[in-house]
Amino acid sequence: MAKIKGIDGLTYDEIYREIDNGGKFVCFPFTISILVMTFKRHSNIHFIKSGDSTFSKSIPFTLITLGLGWWGIPWGPIYSIGSLFSNLTGGKDMTKEVLESWNSSHKPFDPDIID
Predict the structure, then answer these.
(1) Which of 31, 53, 92, 102 has its CA 20 to 30 A from that of 6?
(2) Span 58-72, pLDDT tens digits
(3) What string of DSSP letters covers the chain?
(4) Count of CB atoms situated within 10 Å of the CB of 64
(5) Contact in structure between 86 and 29 (CB atoms under 8 Å)
(6) pLDDT of residue 114
(7) 58/43 Cα distance (integer angstroms)
(8) 65-70 — which CB contacts under 8 Å span 24+ positions?
(9) Which residues, at least 6 apart from 115, have a Cβ–Cβ distance to it below 8 Å?
(10) Gap between the Cα atoms of 86 and 75, Å rounded
(11) How far apart are CA 21 and CA 13, in angstroms?
(12) Burial of 5 (0-12, 13-18, 19+ CB in 10 A)
């Protein structure tokens, strides 16, 4: 899984409490084009606390797309518009995927298994 930014120092309980109050995990797409080649990528996952805005986190990826995304034909403009739309509307919500990954990787404690 990608590195998650914004959770340093938070416990699982604090993260789940934030999510219950509207917090979420998001990533921001960006597009880079070099003539006939276009690459659409995503940022690391960012944890956005309830009440916080995604705008400041999306700015670098929006600027990369604005400067470097349009130049590839034909996919540059198409991918750039999609990336910009996603970033300007809050990024791609990855909360469900992150929680599913955490739940599948954290098994309940079994006292019969000793290292």
Answers:
(1) 31
(2) 999 999 999 999 999
(3) ---EET-TT--HHHHHHHHHTT-EEEE-EEEEEETTEEEEEE--EEEE-TT--SHHHHHHHHHHHHHHSTTSTTHHHHHHHHHHHHHHTT-EE-HHHHHHHHHHH-PPP-TT---
(4) 18
(5) yes
(6) 36
(7) 9
(8) 65/29, 65/30, 65/31, 65/32, 68/31, 68/32, 68/33, 69/30, 69/31, 69/32, 69/33, 69/38, 70/33
(9) none
(10) 16
(11) 12
(12) middle
- 47 contacts 53 by C-beta, under 8 angstroms: no
Structure tokens at 48: 């956005």
